Amino acid sequence: MQTGDIVELEISGVAHGGVFIARHGDPGLVVFVPDTLPGERVVARIVQVKKSFARAEALEVLEASPHRVPHIWRQASIDVAPELRPGGADFGHIALAHQRELKARVLTEAFDKFAGGSVPTTVEPVADDEQGTRWRTRVGLHVDSSGRVGPYAARTHDVIEVADHPLATEQIERTALALGREKPGRVDLVEPADGSVRILRRPDARGRGPRPEPEVVTEIAAGREFRVDAGGFWQVHRQAATALDAAVREALAGIEADADAHHLDLYGGVGLFAAALADRGGRVTTVESSTRATLHARENLADLNVTAITARVERFVDALPADPSLAQGVTLLDPPRAGAGEQVVTRIAELGPRAVVYVACDPVALARDVGIFRRLGYDLDRVRGIDLFPGSHHVEAIAVLRR
Questions:
Q1: pLDDT, tens digit, for every residue of 104-121?
Q2: 92 class by beta-carbon count within 10 Å (0-12 exposed, 13-18 middle, 19+ buried)
């Protein structure tokens, strides 16, 4: 097999990252192919060959899965040349219910491979999300050297212009399509709770002098207002923060409460989950590396028994002395895509909280960290997935681990 070869492939499975699995030749080199589905036979072009696997781009479907539907993003359809297909909707050709089955399969297989065995796993939709479109309240676009604005073509850094943005809210789509030529760099579009789209320009070449103070916007989750920088982190799906707040509160309701407990909210952002922890009693410390986010957390949670600290989580937990109140409490983790990692997980297990609530945006990172927790005396009985990213391979998952 060589780069450029045109081959027929039988798609047999799904892999983490929005690609699907085929085997070619004898003994059967693994080939990763996007834009396909298990059970399909496709024509594909080999684009990369490694010692143990290859990558290909799908060109034509010879035998389609019954779960294939017209792509939600017309320009990302398999009928379009691969170099012109925008990234960001890699499950857009799959019926919504089957997308969730595939995401549950990815979670299950990640636990089998990295966590020492899987547990019952489901992926459920967000309420009122029946179409799987118009959910993105934040969109990042790129600007090339000629000033063209658009997403990257899938798995490249090539900017392509598009005629629509079906995952974005209608307001963001209108704003994006109205942009003219921009300075090379990035343009972020943000629609907070007030419904007014902010345009955040981030040119590669920035002028000298102090940067202007970031605009602060207000978001709402479960009836509580949260102030956050317009360019700061907030969940992308219009219902995500409320859905996650409800899921975390449901998880906490099944954990014994203690009025003297000390709860930790690690990677806490502007305080979304710290509010849920505080409502169960005891005291809460929320830890976040972003100074701006910590300032907002203090303001957002001023009416609650919460202390907001700016620190890197690994340094904070390393310096935290063991305390019986921590062992009576809950530690909540919402790490970035890479996960918490062995250092943080090991230290949390040493501190011995009654339970750990882990909110994850990456199945493999979650499984690796759960595997460490399991070796250190914690376990879980299920993983609950929430489909906060319909049309894409991404999935949010919540795991509750107990001593």
A1: 999 999 999 999 999 999
A2: buried
pLDDT category, 60, cuts 50, 70, 90? very high
Closest residue by Cα to residue 389 from 192, 138, 21, 194: 138
Dist CA 243 CA 388 (whole Å): 9
Beta pairing partners, 397 = 360, 385
Note the pLDDT of residue 222.
87
* pLDDT value, residue 127: 79
What is the spatial distance between Cα 83 and Cα 153, in angstroms, rounded to a whole number? Answer: 6
Distance CA 293, CA 305 (A): 18
What's the whole-number average pLDDT of the chain?
Answer: 96
Cα 97-103-108 angle, rounded to 5 deg: 125
**Cis? peptide before 38, omega within 30° of 0:** no
Average pLDDT estimate for 367-388:
97
- Rounded CA-CA distance 344/316 in Å is 9
Active site residues: 361
Taking Cα atoms as reference points, which of 123, 121, 157, 125 lies closest to residue 142?
Answer: 157
**Full strand arrangement of the beta sheet holding 330-333:** 121-125, 383-387, 396-402, 355-360, 330-333, 262-266, 283-288, 306-310
pLDDT given at position 26: 77
Classify 391 in phi/psi space as left (phi over 0), alpha (psi -120 to 50) or beta. Answer: left
For residue 352, the SS3 value is coil
Q: Which two tokens stand for residue 220?
A: 């709402």
Output b/e per residue, 266-301; b: 16+ Cβ within 10 A: bbbbbbbbbbbbbebebbbbbbbbbebbbbbbbebb
Model confidence over 180-208: pLDDT tens digits?
999 999 999 999 999 999 999 999 987 77
Other Cβ atoms less than 10 A from the Cβ of 199: the count is 15
